[in-house]
Specification:
This protein has 163 residues and is mainly alpha-helical. 66% of the residues lie in helices and 0% in strands.
Length: 163
């Protein structure tokens, strides 16, 4: 474990420092948790890969995302003198988290529902154009769109954009 820390600790810490907006304490906590995960999963240390760094970065990123989600789900704590140290509204990691959540939600859909959403929402086609592209009636496009969005609504309710 000491060798793992010596070889990869600085790089993982720097990565986490970027994900935590320079919050050294939070980055250190996440680095420690990353190393604990490596210690708890010794099978990850004995792989055919040349370096453990990609595995450590993946674990560190997931821990940072989980920690951020946990913080956002709790009410903000008010501490005297920290009014100007809140997370910026233009949080650069938030779009990445949203993209991961949306990908996971879309993966839960059936192929037919996903295909309809791709035509209507991602390509911007009308119902009739999507029907022609998919070779199905317009009514089926409408129905599949409705049920696909209903399914996504349950999964993505935390974002509040589909209600």
């Amino acid at each position: 474990m000491a060798q793992l820390q010596r070889e990869h600790g600085r790089a993982v810490f720097g990565f986490l420092l970027g994900l935590t907006y320079g919050d050294t304490q939070r980055a250190e906590d996440l680095l420690q948790e990353t190393m604990i995960r490596a210690w708890r999963h010794p099978e990850a240390l004995h792989t055919r890969h040349e370096s453990m760094r990609p595995w450590l970065f993946t674990v560190a990123r997931r821990l940072a995302i989980d920690a951020r989600r946990a913080r956002l789900s709790r009410a903000r704590e008010a501490v005297h003198g920290t009014e100007n140290t809140l997370i910026p509204a233009d949080d650069p990691i938030e779009p990445s988290i949203q993209a991961l959540d949306i990908r996971a939600a879309l993966a839960r859909l059936t192929d037919d529902h996903r295909a309809v959403l791709q035509q209507v929402y991602f390509r911007g086609l009308s119902v009739n154009e999507a029907a022609a592209a998919l070779g199905i009636p317009p009514g089926t496009v409408k129905s599949r769109t409705y049920y696909a969005l209903r399914s996504l609504r349950g999964v993505l309710r935390a974002y509040g954009t589909l209600d």
